[in-house]
User: Which sequence fits this backbone?
């Protein structure tokens, strides 16, 4: 499992042992620890809020099914998460449908 934060976008590279939900929860815990140690900046706060909202509203059964389909096909699983215009957008990087319709408001 690997988590990368680009400008206003979080990317999860997951493996069969770590689903997107697990990766997001672990990253949220890392950010909380950094905040408590006084090591978190404004960017960490934005990432924390994005992850918190995503974890409380996403349909992980559907996301997990998408990951499993990619694993069975032998493909790398890269999942993105970002906020645009007040909406959370998310999806798989290899999915042509990864557009505003893939997210929720």
Assistant:
């Amino acid at each position: 499992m690997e988590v990368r934060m680009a400008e206003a976008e979080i990317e999860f590279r997951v493996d069969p042992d770590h689903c997107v939900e697990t990766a997001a929860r672990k990253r949220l815990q890392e950010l909380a620890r950094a905040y408590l140690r006084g090591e978190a900046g404004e960017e960490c706060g934005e990432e924390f809020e994005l992850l918190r909202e995503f974890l409380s509203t996403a349909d992980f059964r559907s996301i997990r099914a998408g990951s499993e389909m990619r694993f069975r096909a032998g493909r790398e699983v890269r999942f993105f998460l970002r906020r645009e215009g007040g909406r959370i957008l998310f999806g798989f990087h290899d999915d042509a449908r990864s557009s505003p319709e893939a997210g929720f408001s």
Observations:
- The longest helix spans residues 20-36.
- Confidence is low (pLDDT under 50) at residues 96-102.
- Residues 2-102 form one domain.
- The chain has one domain: 2-102.
